[in-house]
Every structure is written in C-alpha cells, then in structure tokens.
Inverse folding.
C-alpha cells in the first residue's frame, strides 16, 4: 500500500531512521544498559524491535504495563512512576518493578500485590522522588513490609536539553551524586535514570531510561544527538489562499506543549483543532500531501490510533498505538 | 459508583453545569439557530442531550460524521471543513452537507457522492474559505456539477476571545458583511458561522456553530459568557515534597496549546507526560484527589477514552468519547 491511500492526518515512521536509531542506541548502551521507555511511542510493535536489543522496559502507566504484558514483553518492566492503586499491577503475570517515594506509595505497592520496587530519588527535577537522605529509610520499610528493593531510580529530566556537553556532564554528575548517595543506603542491583538527552553524559547509572531516541523530537534537534527524526505526520493541503495554505493536521493530532510543529520549506503560522495554517516558500496546491514534524513526539503519538512504518511512499507495516489511556 | 473508585486521570463532567449550559444556549438560540459543534466534546452521548434542543450538528472530521450517523444523529450534519476524499461521507445513509472552498474540494464532493454543500467563505481568519467575491462562481460550478448548494458558512474564529463587547460586535459585523455579500451571490437557506465566543454578537448568521459552550474552557473565562466550566480532570496526588506536590495528570491527558492547566488553590509549575507539578496553598497529602481544569477542552477530550457525568462524588453515567480519530 502507498501512503497516498492513507486518510490524513496519519503518523508515518521512517523505517530507515527508526532502525538506525535503535541500532545506534544498542551500540552505545547494549543489553540491560538501556531500558527503553515505551511512553514515547506507546506501541508494542515498536517495543518488540527494541526487545531484540534490550531485555527490560520502562513504562509510565499501568495501562502501558498491561499492554506490554499482553504483547509478551513483560519479562522485566519498571513502572517509573508512583501509583496509589497497584492492584492491576499485582494481578499481572509478569515481572513488575514499581517506583515508590513515600510511605503511602509503599503501602499501595504492598496492598496491590506488587513484589518488587525501586526507590525513586529526587535528583533535582521538582517532580516525584524522595529526598536522597531519606531513601534508605524508605527501602528499609519496604523490605520490612516484605518487598524486594531492586535499587534506586532518579530522573534528571531538567538536563535533557542542556546544549553544552561540558555543562551537561557537570550537572549530570551533580544529580547522579545524589542518586549514588541514596543507592549507598538503599542497595540493590539497579541504578536507573537518564534519558535520550543524557544517554552518554550519564555514566553513573547502570541503566538508561531512554524513550525519545526511537522516534525523536524536533525539540532535541541541535542537542548534538545522533538520532534521526523518524516520525512525521502526513497531512493533506485542504485550502490555499494568497500567501498561505492550510493542512489538515492540528491540535487534535499534534502535541503542542513544545509549541508549533515544523513544516520543511514553510513558516507555520498557527494551529487550530484540525488545521495548521502555514506560509509555504514554494507554491502548494489543494490536495498536495505534506509532512509535518511535531515539536513533541510523546503527546503526539497519544492522539493517534496507529502509525505506519514506511520506506519512501511504501507502507511496510501498520502498528496499533496500543498503550494509550490509563 | 463514586469517583473515588475511578482510575486517574479521568474526565469528569458536572451534570448541573452541562445541563445549565445546554439550557442557556437553547434559550438564547433555540432549535436550528444553534448547530452544535461536536468537535469540542467528541461524545455522542452528550450530542444526544443537545439533540433535544437543536435539530442539526456541526462536525469537523469524517470520523465525527460517521460516529454521529452510527448514533442516530445524522438528520442534518454539516462537515464545516474541507476534505479531499469524500467517499466515506457519500457512503453514509444520512443528510451530509460538506464545506467547499475550491474547485478541488468541489470535485472531491462530487467524486465522493456527497449531494449537498455550503461554500466556505474567508471572513478574516487566515484559514480555510474562499474569498467572498469568488463564492458565487464556486456555487455556480457546484450547481452545474449537480450539487445542491445550501448556502454559505464563515468562521470568525479570531474574534472568539475579544473581551470588549462593543469591539466584538464591530469586528463581527465587519466579518459578517463579507459572509452576507457572499451569500447574496451564492443563495441558499443557510448562513452559518460563529461560535461560543460570538453566539450573541453574531446576529448576522441564521445558525451558530457553537461547541465549547457545553463543557467550556478556562480560556473563555473572563469573556463574559454565562456558561460554566463543566469539565475537569480528576487527578491523584502521587508525590509531595517541600513546597510542591505532583498530580498524575500531564501532557497525555491535557490539551496544552492554551498553556498550563489551572488547579484551584494552587500554582501550577509545569506539566510532564504524566505529571503536573504544583505548589498548593494548603497542604495536600499523597493519595488526595484533586480537580485540574484544562486550558483547552477540545484537545483534552481527544486524549481520553471516556468521560464521567457526575453529581458531586456520584457517577451518574459514563460516556464513551466515541468520535476520536479520523
């Protein structure tokens, strides 16, 4: 099938680019040194390609964990987030490790029948995570409650887009010193952290939770990463006026938290629910198909039911985005 | 069922508020004077409540049209957007009226088996729509091709959030003068336009395509509208640190194009994929349930599978958001 036959808007994944991205990451961080984060793509078909390189996965939601298990990818799932009702996790026939950062989330793990946890440590990003000096006490409480504590995790998310490599290395070291201090108190085999933006800078953890590298974002462009933008939104030009044109991709098909999408060879003016108004450098005609680059992949993918793996104009496979929802 | 049993994040619709919103609009614009736009809520269960007041609906996508027909709401659907492949519309056993603004979209309507159209006129918003002075020629071409031309539509979307009523009235009149000039050339019984922001200011059209009024946006707050915010996202506090807390609602459950959500009694710092970090004025605890107000309803709803109609803590009904996708 040719992409010309697709209803637009439609997610396209360039096969060459995603294959190269997966290979590049596997070469840099082989096997368990990368624990791919599926939140970025929410697609078990793509996770299966990553599973050829890496034995474990990171997930952000209970639904993602359930979907991965249903797809046969439940050998070692880390839910790198806190939950207050873990019963659906405890019911899964799979190896599930859950992040905890408080007495309440520890109690939820126990009540839900989860058996393994990591202590989520605040390494500087004001989000989840216990203060490093309190991590050991929480680990002791978890063990006393019968849980296996596999180690620690800490996400230096505020450093992902630091441009200067020396600065990034310095800040990452500072963040990871907190994680290592916590790990000294907590113990366990896992020191988990990082992301696509720090996958080389973070030499302190023993596994990197990278997600964006597979499909990439325009927001990461210029961050000096070897990964290629693999995901675009195929759109149709539905209207042309003097000085601008309109494509049928908009707020319902694009994650907008990083701002407007990019259209090569055009200036994007604004997006509406089902429209993007843009000024093309060269004339476009109603009915033309164009590629729109979302500024943030993760919430973009969450808006789509499927993505199409393509080589040029040819559709090789169609993948369900089967990890959406909660 | 009580909302305490819901998995979060979850969309909640306050029954009192949505009922009042629908009644207020029906009182202001009874029957065919309002043609509710379903893009705002993408939920046929809610559209059925609107159908008690208004005979026709506006849709933005082919999928929305298909879903409305499947729900028995296909008596008079206006697809207020341009499409280049109308075959799925032509296949529907329903009254479908399609917007056209070019020879190519006219040809697509004919090729797809659509029988009725309106001419979409540019009234000032740089998006779809033919120049007013060309509308008559397009209507003649449509009639020559065997189509019924029901009239004109023109959306003054750039005026929705103009705060001053006198300014809004003046600008609306200028925009609608263009639409009326086009209508003089086009003919037909429909003069369609407007939205929630101009539903009283736009006295020039004979039907208003209002969508947001049913559930409302925080972006419309302060625009002097009588409608109440009916939709919130129920979230769970999953982590509490010194000075801030984290709720399990984020970029995957909130439309972000209008900026951060609002949390009453708190300052929102930032959102991540599944998190919102906020500084509460009064202490919150891990496990607390809070209500988050999305800045833009339409793309928020598009991220959710369902919404729950509630009265206080009680869930009255659960509605599928069944018009998502394309």
């Amino acid at each position: 099938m040719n992409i010309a036959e697709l209803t637009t808007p439609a997610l396209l994944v360039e096969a060459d680019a995603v294959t190269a991205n997966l290979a590049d990451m596997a070469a840099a961080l082989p096997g368990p040194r990368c624990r791919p984060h599926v939140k970025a793509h929410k697609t078990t078909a793509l996770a299966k390609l990553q599973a050829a390189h890496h034995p474990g996965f990171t997930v952000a939601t209970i639904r993602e964990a359930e979907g991965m298990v249903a797809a046969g990818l439940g050998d070692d799932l880390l839910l790198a987030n806190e939950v207050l009702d873990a019963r659906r996790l405890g019911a899964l026939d799979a190896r599930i490790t859950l992040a905890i950062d408080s007495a309440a989330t520890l109690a939820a793990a126990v009540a839900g029948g989860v058996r393994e946890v990591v202590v989520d440590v605040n390494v500087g990003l004001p989000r989840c995570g216990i203060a490093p000096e309190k991590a050991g006490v929480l680990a002791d409480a978890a063990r006393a409650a019968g849980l296996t504590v596999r180690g620690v995790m800490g996400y230096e998310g505020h450093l992902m887009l630091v441009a200067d490599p020396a600065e990034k290395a310095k800040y990452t070291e500072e963040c990871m010193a907190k994680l290592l201090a916590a790990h000294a108190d907590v113990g366990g085999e896992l020191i988990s952290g990082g992301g696509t933006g720090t996958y080389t800078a973070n030499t302190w953890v023993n596994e990197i939770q990278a997600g964006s590298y597979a499909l990439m974002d325009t927001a990461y462009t210029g961050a000096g990463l070897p990964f290629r933008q693999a995901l675009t939104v195929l759109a149709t030009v539905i209207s042309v006026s003097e000085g601008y044109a309109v494509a049928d991709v908009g707020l319902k098909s694009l994650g907008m938290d990083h701002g407007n999408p990019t259209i090569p060879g055009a200036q994007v003016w604004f997006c509406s629910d089902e429209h993007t108004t843009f000024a093309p450098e060269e004339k476009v005609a109603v009915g033309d198909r164009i590629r729109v680059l979302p500024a943030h992949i993760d919430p973009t993918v969450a808006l789509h039911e499927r993505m199409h793996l393509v080589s040029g104009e040819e559709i090789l496979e169609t993948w369900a985005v089967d990890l959406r929802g909660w």
User: Anything to note?
Assistant: Residues 165-186 of chain A form the longest helix (22 residues). Chain A touches chain B through 58 residues (CB under 8 Å). Chain A has a mean pLDDT of 96. Chain A is about 25% helix and 25% strand.
